[in-house]
Amino acid sequence: MNLVEMTGMRKSFFGVEVLHGVDFKLKPGTVHALMGENGAGKSTLMKILAGAHASDGGEVKIDGQAVDIASPSKALAAGIAMIHQELSGVAEMTVAENVFLGREPTVMGFLDKKKLHTMTEETLRGLGIEINPKVKMKHLRVADQQMVEIAKALSQNARIVIMDEPTATITATEVENLFGIIEALKTRGTGIIYISHRMDEIFRISDEITVLRDGENVSTWNADEVNPDQLIKSMVGRELTEQFPKVEAELGEVALEVENLSRKKQYENISFFLRKGEILGIVGLVGAGRTELMHSLFGLTRPDRGKIRLFGEEVTIKSPRDAISKGIAYVTEDRKGEGLVLPMGVDQNITLPSLKLFTKAGIVQYIKEGVAVNEHIGALQIKVQNKRQKVKALSGGNQQKVVLAKWMLTEPKIIILDEPTRGIDVGAKAEIYRIMCEYVARGCSIIMVSTEMPEAMGMADRIIVLSNQKISGEIQRKDFLQETIVQMQFEHMHSRKEAGQ
Asked: In this structure, are residues 89 and 100 in contact, taking their beta carbons and an 8 Å threshold?
């Protein structure tokens, strides 16, 4: 008997049907991967199963019995837990309060904080997670927030666990811990629905794979019956003959130079340069100082010491406004939390940093603004119903392209891309890579921070490796070798441990 059986599932948003009679089955003790491009309907289908969305048609059965999952609490009662792609923690609450939200231990009607912290410590320890249960979520890194979300879902002892991009922001060690947990869950008969765009993960842990495209079932295979090329073609409806459309750009003068830049406990004595027309890759493990360094280059934080030069002239970047005025743009790794204003329209998001270009005497010139917005929607091939559509209704890949359009409109000379393709599908990735190549071909420059090694090696002209907040190596494109880069990521690990750091 199937653990889960979804038949003829339908769902519409704003009058547009996004699920067209989808079928899906999950067997006990297996991992069933659900794949497809952004907007294919994967998350919508799973949110119906998790009680976050009501379906417009179809039937859901658990253990062969029809069920009405009208809310997340009813889903939990039915043994269903979901790890969401987008972080959903309560920022002002502690880790412990987030993990057991709605299930807090009480004594005489009052919260038992001691027991709460003990339960959380046991849960985290069982998952190999070292996080203080008393720390507020807002003080955690994105990767640690994701681990808390995973801990919260798995602490519910669900029989059906939905994992939507669970490894998008976590380290390789944490991924290994998670895969070990998945194997343990399978032996207990737990069924796992796994959504990911990372092919290596899918083929490593999946028993079955189902592909959705444009809200419809395309195919279902046993994982050992399909290869990555077949899977990609099934997802996008075409062959991606070149995953990384890298074009060798002509490198020009030095656009950016960083000399001995340091910020206490974040990065130390960082020196590098970036040429016009170059894509410079920055890689390193979580905690290596990658994002913290980018924050200082964009004026979100101030370095304690060191120099920054733009086209040979020393500059001080005190704020993002300073950075933008000097021709630097920053696409953050957290597009929903920091890159977009979700309730606003596509047009408003795109022109937000550039409103002065479209205002006269304090009044927005809407026709001029609309022309610019439409040009960028067309150039970046953003799929929208119209330019006023709310950004929150777009797929992850299209949201990312809105962020890119927003910064392209400022006509930056240097753009920082922090995890530019996190959580988006292979088709959308290829489009973003194309945009990157077109951008540097115009003589502009890109700093690309990425935890995906194939992406960094596929797109960068040169890679700088950070390890424990220092530069541990630099490699030219002709010398790229994954083993060398991985080794450099651990360069300073032992020396720091020996020093008690």
From this structure: no
